[in-house]
Amino acid sequence: MATILSTLSFGALVTLLIEINPLFPETLPFSFFIFIFLLLFYILDVKVRRILEIESKDL
Fold it and tell me: Where exactly are the transmembrane stretches of this chain (predicted)?
């Protein structure tokens, strides 16, 4: 469920960047910061899921 939500938020942010930046170029640094933050959150979510899957197999 968390992966689905993070994927949706990632896709929504990419769409937001594509739509808003031509209208407001000064928002680019802020949008880029949010994009990087969500990308790191998504990678961390995937890594934690893999660790939990490995630990559950050991039990």
Answer: 27-44
